[in-house]
Amino acid sequence: MGRILRVIMTNLSPKTSADWTHALQQGERAALARAITLVENDAPEAREVLRAARSLTGHALVVGITGAPGAGKSTLVGAYVSELRRRHLSVGVLAVDPSSPLTGGALLGDRIRMLTHAGDPGVFVRSLASRGHLGGLARSTGAVVDVMDAAGRDVVVVETVGVGQSEIEVTDLADIRVVVWAPGAGDDVQAAKAGILEIADILVVNKADLPPAAATEAALRSAASYGAGRTPVVMRTIATNGSGVPELADQVAERGQQMSGSRVAGAARRLQRQLVDAAALQARQQAQEHPGLADLCEAVRRGDLDFDEAASQLISPKT
Asked: Is the pLDDT of residue 309 over 50?
């Protein structure tokens, strides 16, 4: 019976970009789930999905929530989603998790940690496996955000995997960036000033009921005051009981309204990043398959070729 149902669903699923456009515009959950699966797995059908999705983007506010492991990001995301639903906003959540070394799938499964939203049609939660991709995101995250946006979600929340200071890819992906800190992390603030701290629109000290919270907040305010450009907001939350979460939602909404440009500009920025990433991947593959790779390496070793000149020949061979 299960196999018959899968065959029926496969035959009924959208095929062309026009079919996908209609399905995404209708906000069909089954179509959205299948579209994300195709995109995440880079299936052949994903081209039609993305051709449809990218013509519909520019609606959602994309909020990136990042920070080191143990700061309570997942609990805060769950509380933030509940607050957005109280405001009658539809939400998509992409939780990027570490990968299973055996299957490549998401290891932690944030959907399990957000079961309170499982029956809510206004919330769609999906875990994405990082699959070894650095920077806190999965390679397909930008494309999946486009699919969520096209499906009419008012807010798309991206929770990164939590890899520390190098976790800055969310800068190009999100319209608003929230960096979450745990109390007692004050000693790490100075070290992070040149990295993850500087990408923040909002700095949140979560678990603010713990004694070190005040010191961590003070350290963040001091560090943020030395940054260039707009100073990020610093605030406290207790995600387990919702304290400070409405204020966080207010700050995100206010920052969203103050953004220069429109949601369309954000979608264009995501597309630019995806295009650059795709070009880099193709260039890497071309370089690895270059028939003269060994000879170029030997020429560099002998000093006959400059390193950059050899690299240029790998991706732009003379004809």
From this structure: yes
